[in-house]
Specification:
Length: about 200
Amino acid sequence: MVSASDTVALRQPDPGPSDTGHGASDSDQALPLLARARAAAAAVTDPEIPVVTLEDLGILRSVSLAAGRIQVVLTPTYTGCPATDAIRDEVARALERCGVRDPDIRIELAPAWTTDWISPTGRDKLKQYGIAPPQACAQPGDTASAVLRFVARPRSHKGLACPRCEAHAVELVSEYGSTPCKALYRCLSCREPFDYFKPY
């Protein structure tokens, strides 16, 4: 049974189809739609880095059923991100394609997004795309510190590896790369420039 406050866990397997034959309650009938809505929102790609999804980046915080409407909560990578409206519009289109009418799409800025929310799959995709993934700022398993309190972000590129040749001899070219959330580096081994997704 799905109550009005139930939320589909973002990194849990989607519920399978259920039998909603005669006599099934409204909440039973909502379960497949809720699962489809979650899958549709999770599959939306970032407009600036199209190889990663909103789920990969941790921008998609929740998909739930509230007061009879599908509610989606998004947290942009930083306040004022120019892609926020485009992301919200694309989520709305994805939901409409899977049969969701009049979704409640909310932008929540607290707790602030952190690069610790990027999934391992997302980090791999960034690297394969030629963007050095952000270095983790929280200790493994220390989710609360990443979400609930400020974590000092190191400015050093110690440990940073070139996403192309994996050499650690790199130099900072500019604090800002193709977007404000990335810095531009150059590999001193293969000489290729690359973006580094700055840790936040």
